[in-house]
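Exam revision sheet. Question 4 asks you to relate a sequence to its structure. Input first:
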Amino acid sequence: MRADIGMEPAWPPASHRRLGDVGVFRKGRFERKGTLKSLYGIDFAPRPIPHNRSSYHSDSTGNVQVHLDTGLGADAGPVAADGSVLLEFARARSVLFHATGCRTEEIDGIEAVESGMLDLHRAGRWPDDQVVITEVTHAAFTTVLMSRKRRDRIALRATVDPGITGLDVLAASGGLQWAGGSTAGLQLLSEGELTPLYRVRGMIPHWFKEDEAGFLSPEKDEEAVEKWIVDEVSSESFETDEDYEDFEDEDEDEDEADDEAGGDGEDTTDV
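Answer key, C-alpha cells:
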C-alpha cells in the first residue's frame, strides 16, 4: 500500500489518526505517545485546502484479482453474480484497500514545526525514532480485506441499491455484505468516516560537506559530517529484519504444505 499510494496506512484500518499526534513505530504500527501540544507545547493549525474529493485503491501489488460483474467459468471456482465483486488473493495476508470521498488535511506552517523538532532533537528531547503526523486523509467510505491464506476467494455484494456495479460496490453507501467464500483475516466493509491514510515526519541523519552549507552528500566521505534534518519518513524507515521473521516462517510453512499435498494449494471452498 505504501508503494501504491505513497502514504502510510493506518493499521488497524479503523485506528484514528490526528494531525500533531507524536509517537513511534512498533513493527509497522504507529504507537501514539501524545501530541506536539501536550508533549512539547508546540501549537499548530490545519492548512486550508480547497474542497476536493479523491479515491485510493491498492491490491497488494497485483496479489489480489478483482473480478467485476462476471462469471469466471466452471474451472475457475466461485462465480461472481451480477452487481457483486469476487476477490481472489494470490498470497496469505494479501490486502485489498479501497477508499472513496477522501479529503486531506495537513499542518500549516510546517517549517516552524520542523524547526521546533530540530531544536528539541539537539537538546536531546526528541528521540531519533520519534515521528509526528503532519498529514491525514479522511475517507467517506473505506473497505479493507486481508486474506488468511493463499488462493482465498471472497465474494461481496452491496446490501442496498442493486444497480451499483464495479468498484463502486466497494464503497456502497448502504454497506457491503459477505456473499460467500473464505472468511477474511481482517474485514472492514464500506465503513464510513475513517482516517485510513497519513504521512509523518521524523529525524533523518545526512552527511553534509563542511565547505558546502546545506549540500546533501549522497555518500559519506572523509570531509563530510553527520547532521540531522527533518523529512518525511514511513514505518519502513524503522523496520528491522526481525519484523519480517514471523511472516517469512509462515510463508515457508505454506509452501511446504503445498509440496506435501502434491498440489498447488488450491482452495475448494464453494461460494
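Marking note for examiners. The first strand starts at residue 8 and ends at 9.
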